[in-house]
Amino acid sequence: MPLSRAATRVAVRSPGEAADYRRVLKQAMQSHQAGDLDAAEHRYREVLELRAGQPDAMHYLGVLCHQRGRSDEGVRLIEAALKITPKHPDAHNNLGNIHKECGRLAEAERCYRKALKCGSLHYNAQNNLAVVLEAQERVEEAFQAYAKLLQQAPKFAQGYYLMGRFLRNYAQSKEHVEQSAQCFRTAYELDPRNLRALESLGMSLYTLNRIGEAVQVYRDWVAREPDHPVPRHMLAACGGAQAPTRAADDYVREVFDAFADSFDEQLLKNLGYRAPEILAEALGGMLPGAAGEFEILDAGCGTGLCEPLLRPYAKRLVGVDLSGGMIEKARLRGGYDELDVAELTAYLRAHPAAYDIVFSADTLEYFGDLEEVLDAAHAALRQHGWLAFTVEAAQGEDDRVDLSPSGRYQHTRHHVERALSSAGFSRKSIGTDTLRKEGGQPVTGWVVLAQRAGQG
Hints:
Elements: H1 5-12, H2 15-19, H3 21-33, H4 37-50, H5 55-67, H6 71-84, H7 89-101, H8 105-118, H9 123-135, H10 139-152, H11 157-169, H12 174-190, H13 195-207, H14 211-224, H15 229-237, H16 249-259, H17 263-270, H18 275-284, E1 294-299, H19 307-310, E2 314-321, H20 324-333, E3 338-341, H21 344-349, E4 355-360, H22 371-380, E5 381-393, E6 401-403, E7 409-411, H23 413-423, E8 428-438, E9 441-451
Parallel strand pairs: 1-2, 1-4, 2-3, 4-5, 5-7
Antiparallel strand pairs: 5-9, 6-7, 8-9
Helix pairs in contact: 3-4, 4-5, 5-6, 6-7, 7-8, 7-9, 8-9, 9-10, 10-11, 11-12, 11-13, 12-13, 13-14, 14-15, 22-23
Pfam families: Methyltransf_11, TPR_16, TPR_19
Protein name: Methyltransferase type 11 domain-containing protein
InterPro entries: Methyltransf_11 (IPR013216), SAM-dependent_MTases_sf (IPR029063), TPR-like_helical_dom_sf (IPR011990), TPR_rpt (IPR019734)
């Protein structure tokens, strides 16, 4: 077999020139860590020209390829690196991460177990193994894996945060919620930057009806960081301040930018998230046989979970979200014709009569009174266009909106009906279904379809 071009070049380099690959590899890693992916990729490939088959360059280039949406190429590169260094736990762990983020949970589990076989105290692999066991609903095994993680790494803040989340998600007694609160408290004490642990501590305390303690958690946080949007909003959600008419833009942006990397995993695998499928099925019943005909807006598109559900109906599919982090994940997923970072009501107002369908799965629960945003959606629709959305359901016959301790709004059926009528929608359908789980309990929501009338 003739030598490849790269191999030929390596063969004619002097020993001093060949040794240069270490310097270039270090530069590549520095660029990668700094987020300059273009420079990092160029330098990793330069390393592989200087030294064909260099396993670290292949490993890290594989990670980078996945970050850029080329996951299959990333898998091939890391697998090639592991043929050269088969006992490299970090490479097995990163290969597992790619499989996990692509939804291949069994393959991910195998990789994490190989990483642990190569390095039994590799707590990141132990952490990831626990996560994929939970995602596969192997609850007892996941609990044992989290417990082993905390035993191996008693100062690992993220481990306590994940155990707390697990205990609250699968709580079978008050004791489990109490244990979750202690885990969140410990996670925050170990890492004060872990603000999601602090937010979760307040939610667990509220669930335990220790409302005064929950309020105090957020009040203390506001005192330390008066400009931070999360404690301001959550203080109101716990009844410690007046509820805003809708979640502030900086709150939504902060929460979802921080949530972007783990959004799909937590919602789909750990919380049984069903809203996109339920809503798409309901909408599909109104669009029999329609294929590729519609201009569609995915309003609050997040990481793009709705894209494969909407694409069969779309001539053009646009996604909009307030979180730039979420939009980047949706961009990597591919499939949208356009993606924009914008506040939803303003975006709808800026695009009159632009869409045949406005689809919004679990976004309007961050709005209080729905009248303004539904009026904007009506204006953005063409004649006979459809609005499809879900919101969490509040009980009662009155016209009411509640800000719940989760930080999301709940709406009564009467409020949804009144806001739709006020906005001008004619044909309306409001059903109920379970959107996801929270604290081990189902979250019931309204599944809403509304049509804009035509002329005459």
